[in-house]
Amino acid sequence: MSGRPDSRRPVSQDRGPRINHQIRIRQVRVIDEDNKQLGIMETADALALALHKQLDLVEIAPNQRPPVCRIMDFGKYKYEEKKKEQASRRKQHQVQIKELRVRPGTGEHDLQVKIRQARQFFADGDKVLVCCLFRGRQIAHKDVGEQVIQEVVKELADIAKVEAGIRVEGKRMVLLLSKK
Fold it and tell me: In 3-state terms, the chain is what percent helix, strand and coil (to 5)?
């Protein structure tokens, strides 16, 4: 046993609000299942009232003095919270970076097909990384690759803006576009 006074307490695991017998304070402010304030009462009395109604006493505002407790079905409450969290997760969209690969010798029609793909990516809410790949000695003519990338930027100027300018990474030249 160490000399610290709190060494005998169990390690509290924050798993949500305290319920029923986990509430150790003497008096609590009680709200019933119909959201009516019952006032301040002894914790034992509030717990007896909750058990009489076959519900739980749940501490919802532990930092208030006295703490606020609500009489409710805790299992049903946890189930509804889980459903709300899942619904909010479903509505979220993770922004992805889609790569649009072009080459210095990419033809006009092929470039239009790639631009249509990029428009679809922007419609889905994603960002587009325009990547010009050089092979062999093509890297000596970076200006040709830059012209291809600028053509893509010009065609997408109505719905996209340049987020990160052109930079060379080895045998690749990249530019990041995002939706306006």
Answer: 35, 30, 35
**pLDDT, tens digit, 9 for 90 and up, residues 47-72:** 999 999 999 999 988 888 888 999 99
- Torsion sign over Cα 132, 133, 135, 137: positive
* Residue 12 resides in a domain: no
Residue 173 lies in a domain: yes
Residue 15: burial class (beta carbons within 10 Å; 0-12, 13-18, 19+): exposed
Selection from 46, 48, 53, 52 nearest residue 31 by Cα: 46
Average pLDDT score over the chain? 86
116 is a domain residue: yes
Whether 46 and 77 share a structural domain: yes
Residue with tokens 């307490």: 9
DSSP secondary-structure letter at 155? H
Residue 14 within a domain: no
- Look up the pTM and report it: 0.52
The CATH code of the domain that includes 133 is 3.30.110.10
Confidence of residue 131 (pLDDT cuts 50, 70, 90): very high
Coil, helix or strand for 12?
coil
- Domain total for the chain? 2
30: containing domain: 20-88
